[in-house]
């Protein structure tokens, strides 16, 4: 209260963003507002539910310092692990069942390092939390409250220095039994119970909720660990894949701070006009860079103990012959090559081809928005042309990366089925002997059974490697 005109007292709204305080008893609150007083104390560190016991589990012995969690697309763990290795980021644990890698970075590297192969990255608070099979929202809330009690000081330390916060919930489930917004309130209740955040205007426990202009985000990742790639391949056994222990990972991500994700959207008002998923584009670009890196020493990495090295020339010309995503894969590859520093790619040229004039114009605009110079990566050229007759001479391309139409948003499935072999034959025509093509498609059966065999008999193309992965829900990609 402050003295106002005439000597009367008037209330002043408390300042938000309190600094970390001295250790408090978990049953007390830094504030005695109506919200804080209504939160019941929780004595034990385990909570019984209708499905069993919820307990906090540790992954493996974690070294001191901040531990980050990276969630990668299912099926692409090898690319995520390789990128962490390239970045000298030590792996603490790999929860492969849940597509999560726990790793560490020194604080001074957080603002310098960008990781491209993850859908989600956040700083982990505590360890992973075990949930029963098919948990309810109430089970998740009980587990979150146990976790918050166990990590009270950590939550206060991470949240109280901010003024505004929000919760984001990310789910990875075969069967969706609840919606993400239903989980948000129970996470908020758990954090309010330990005095880490504010849930009302008169509460001074910590930052207040702001869904748009937030400074820190509390991240909740929930996964049932079901292999959706297997479920896509074996629909008959799909119903038997669930029923196992699930996991909850809780942590924080500071908004506009510690940018670990590279962006294809910077450089002009409204950002680049991209259509393909950025994470998948970067993962594909990392795989292409691996091929180019192998070519520097004259062979590709062996895919198994029985496969012999395949000699290839050093790649110089890399083409996306159907850049309908307005160059997303080329922009991602440009970014990766600039940071990987592959000696054999310093003189590389990236070329995007599309049949549509407007799309070619978007690519040129995106390239201009991304900037130029040695740090931006190899130059990117844009050409108008069709994959039925590319405007390129035979045998001039070292590597092709392409995401042809799937028959979903663009064209029909019958159109793709009728033309896929024609496209692939044209790609083979412009490739140099020993060149490679990286193709992203959900038409896996068509490509492997109808496209490759006749081209292999003609000595044009052969299938060297096939990797199934989850492309934003397309689990047969």
Number of strands: 18
What fraction of the residues are assigned to beta strands by DSSP?
15-25%
SSE pattern: EEHEEEHEEEEHHEHEEHEHEHEHEEHEH
Shape: elongated
Major sheet, described briefly? 9 strands, mixed
> Gap between N and C termini, in Å?
63 Å
Name the average pLDDT: 78
Number of helices: 11
Please mark out the parts with pLDDT under 50 across 5 or more consecutive residues, or reply none.
7-23, 40-64, 266-276, 297-307
Helix/strand structural class: alpha/beta
Gyration radius, rounded: 26 Å
What is the percent of helical residues?
A: 25-40%
Describe the structure.
By secondary structure, the protein is of the alpha/beta class. Helices cover 28% and strands 19% of the residues. The chain is built from eleven helices and 18 strands. Strands 5, 6, 7, 8, 9, 10, 11, 12 and 13 form a nine-stranded mixed beta sheet that branches. The chain is elongated. Mean pLDDT is 78; it is low at 7-23, 40-64, 266-276 and 297-307.
Q: Short summary of the structure?
A:
By secondary structure, the chain is an alpha/beta fold. The chain has helices at 34-38, 77-86, 137-150, 152-159, 180-192, 228-233, 278-296, 328-340, 357-370, 413-430, 444-457, and strands spanning 2-3, 9-10, 47-49, 52-54, 67-71, 91-95, 100-104, 120-124, 129-131, 164-172, 208-209, 216-223, 246-254, 317-320, 349-354, 380-384, 397-402, 431-439. Helices cover 28% and strands 19% of the residues.
List its traits.
18 strands; nine-stranded mixed sheet; 11 helices; elongated; five-stranded parallel sheet; alpha/beta; 477 residues; 19% strand; single chain
